[in-house]
Amino acid sequence: MATHSRKWLVLAALVALAPDTPGVIELWDDDELVYVGATRRKETLRTELERELAAHAAQATHFGWQITFDPEARERELLAEFELQYHRRPRFNS
Known about the structure:
Strand content: 15-25%
Largest sheet: 4 strands, antiparallel
Structural class: alpha+beta
Strand order of the largest sheet: 1-4-2-3
C-alpha cells in the first residue's frame, strides 16, 4: 500500500502530538491496516484520532496520519489502493 505515514503506538501522549490540521488517519492492529479515515469540516487529525480511537481502541495497536488539504480525496485513494491489493475494505471501513 502506498501509504508513507509513520506508525505510532496508541498512547495518549502520542495522540496529543498529532497536528491540528486536516488530513487522513490510519489505525493498525499490529501489521494489519484496519481503518482509514479523513477529517471532515472543522475536525483536525488530533480530534479525528481521538474520536476513532475511542470507538476502536481495543483493536488498534498503532496509528498513523498524513497531512493533506484534500482529506476526502486522499482517503478515497488509500481505500482504493487497499481494495486493489486485498480485494476488501479495511475491517472498520466495512
